[in-house]
Amino acid sequence: MAKEKLLIVKVGTNALDDPETLRKLIKDLVAIKCRKMLVHSGGIMASKVADSMGIKTGKSKKPVIIDDKMLDIVTMVYGGLVNKRLTALLQKHHINAVGLTGADMNIITADIKPATDSKKRVNWAGTVKKVNGKALASLIEKGAMPVLAPLTHDGKGHILSTEANDIAVQTAKALATNYDVTLVFCFENRGVLSNEDNPDSVIAVLKPNQYRIMKEIGYIKDEMRTVIDSAFSVLEYGATEVIITNAASLANLVDGTHIKL
What we know:
CATH superfamily: Acetylglutamate kinase-like
Strand content: 15-25%
C-alpha cells in the first residue's frame, strides 16, 4: 500500500523577518495539496527583544550561550510570538495549524549541549535525542498541520533551544516509516550554488560522489555541509526526497537542489 505524501518545510530567518516573503511562502504552502508540516527557526526577534531588555547577545559568529535570561526570551519569542504568528497566518487560509514546542505531547526530547566557553556556564541548548513520530502522526491524521518551534525539552523540566535544521531532519526520519516524506530546506539562495558569486548557478541534482569532490576541495561551507550531510542521512532513513531552495521558490519545487543517493 502506497504511503500518503507528507511535505515538511523548514523555514529560516530570511523568510521569517521579511513580511512579504513570509506571506508568499504561506500562500504557496497552502496551495500544495498534501499533508504538511512547518518547522521554523527563531529569526532575529529574540535578539531584538534581548537588546530592548538590556541583555547583551554579542556580535560574535559563535553560537550564543543560552543562559537563564536568554532561555526565557527564546521561549517567549520562538514558542510564542513567532510560532503563533505563523499558526495565525495559516488559519487565515483555513489550515488547521497547531503550534508546538518539543515539550508539547512530549514530541521532541533533547540532550543538553556541553558548555563551550571558558566559564563553563550552563548552556540551555539541545540536540535532538528522540522525536515522537506516533504523536505527530496522530495530529496529522486528524487533519492538523503541526508548526514546530525551535524548542525541545530534556525530560527533566527544562526547555532547550534547538536548531530548527536538527528538528526538521530528525522529524523527517521519525515520520519516514509512516509517510512518503519530502523535506524542503528554505535558505537565502535558490539552492546549492556551483559559483557563490552567481545566485543563478544552482546545482539541480547533487549526488554523493559530486558532493564528496566539492567537500575535498573545500568548496562547501560548514553550515551548508551540515545541511547536506543531514539531507543524505534523511534519504538513507527512507525519506523520498530532500530539496534545498529558498522560500520564494516553494511554489515550484522542480527548481532548487535535489539531493539524491
